[in-house]
Amino acid sequence: xxxxxxxxxxxxxxxxxxxxxxxxxxxxxxxxxxxxxxxxxxxxxxxxxxxxxxxxxxxxxxxxxxxxxxxxxxxxxxxxxxxxxxxxxxxxxxxxxxxxxxxxxxxxxxxxxxxxxxxxxxxxxxxxxxxxxxxxxxxxxxxxxxxxxxxxxxxxxxxxxxxxxxxxxxxxxxxxxxxxxxxxxxxxxxxxxxxxxxxxxx
Length: 202
Description:
PG/BPGM_mutase_AS, alpha/beta, disordered C terminus, phosphatase activity, 7 helices, Rossmann fold, His_PPase_superfam, globular, single chain
């Protein structure tokens, strides 16, 4: 049976606004982040998308985002947490190395890139395999969404590959995947900032 996964990044946080490295450390949503999450909820309602199951990273910023998007019960999973950036956590983003990070953070107590990517992929396969529901929401983080997307890039349509390479992943950006036989295929990218513009214009 074909299932659908809506994987999204949390709303803007205080650390995002102040350009702080934010992996396993946490910060509250800003007023804009709250608005972004509410707008995502409006998008799903207007699109008549009803979730059978929902999951969130254990980080507060992800849980708060999910609770603003939908009021259905959800499960918190450590596997959905962001990349662990080690001693860089909470420091200025100016200290980050150039992309791609690869295994830079391992030297500072952080996660290996491939281990992080493996965690992201296995976590999502696990809950999709063990859930009877057809439409699933998972709220996670920017690097998580990026590494997950990178792993399944071979299943991505060419026009979405171009979209993928345009820049970073915005707060509350939503990735729609189809899931069949333990394989994910990216079929749509919903940019929350564009949704804010569209809804405010109506």
